[in-house]
Design goal:
GNAT family N-acetyltransferase (chains A, B); Bact_Acetyltransf (chains A, B); GNAT_dom (chains A, B); acyltransferase (chains A, B); homodimer
Chain lengths: 153, 153
């Protein structure tokens, strides 16, 4: 039996381990910069996330090792008769644990957290280049009803 | 020449006009409830949006009439070397002005606002049932690189 995964909020001293995971990814390696010291922009972003009650940066840990990260944003909307939504973004698992079900546990945890926060919907977008991710999320109950459109500024 | 459109933040007394617009829509009429008095849930959602510095509910007005609404959410992320994104959601125009370019002006305004707030990306999802909306956003420079996945709770 595999060791249990524990979830907790990220702290400032976790940012290094998080960026390492973000950069260790087929798309992430092109756009992240894992240097020593880390670019200051990562720490500034962490502080902005940490200061916002409607954003939670969550770590999955096995024993004391960080093996996964995701960000959950809670947003109030007027649509659907006034409701809250949870948006999951930046989901990554350490390459050392991929294929062992950690991702499934992370998303299931995020869905429970969204229920606790009173959300009526959980949403995410996934890059069409990530074919496995689409199947992964469909298996967990997400439905690709929408086009996810982006514009870089 | 058409009257200019002015943009401003929504106030509590605008919620009635906003919900009327949300309900006057092929998908919205199924899921919204425009009654007198309005369901309390709309006012609660408005208060939550209004209290959140990272959410802006924006109205497009022609003279004093509200002709469009949209919500812009600003979110800090660790990804892309620590960055802010703007998410546009709940875009509606009054049926009396559709096809007159108000939607284009609204999205252009939102993109400028995202730049002012230092965002590196603007994103939105659009229901695949709204065929015209996909073309509309593509014409404005959005690229449908992602699947937009939803799970109702």
């Amino acid at each position: 039996m595999k060791d249990a995964i524990a979830f907790r909020r990220a702290r400032k001293q976790d940012v290094d381990a998080i960026v390492k995971m973000l950069a260790d990814d087929v798309l992430g390696k092109e756009r992240e910069r894992y240097t020593n010291p880390l670019p200051e922009s990562y720490l500034q972003a962490f502080q902005a996330i940490d200061a916002d009650l409607n954003n939670e940066l969550v770590l999955a840990c096995r024993e004391s090792e960080v093996i996964g990260v995701m960000q959950i944003t809670f947003t109030p909307y007027l649509t659907h008769q006034g409701s809250w939504r949870a948006t999951i973004e930046g989901v990554r698992t350490s390459s050392s644990v991929r294929g062992q079900g950690a991702g499934t546990q992370m998303i299931e945890w995020a869905v429970e957290r969204a229920k606790e926060r009173g959300c009526s919907l959980v949403q995410l977008t996934t890059d069409k280049q990530r074919k496995d991710a689409l199947r992964f999320y469909e298996k967990l109950g997400f439905i690709p009803t929408h086009e996810g459109m982006k514009m870089k500024l």
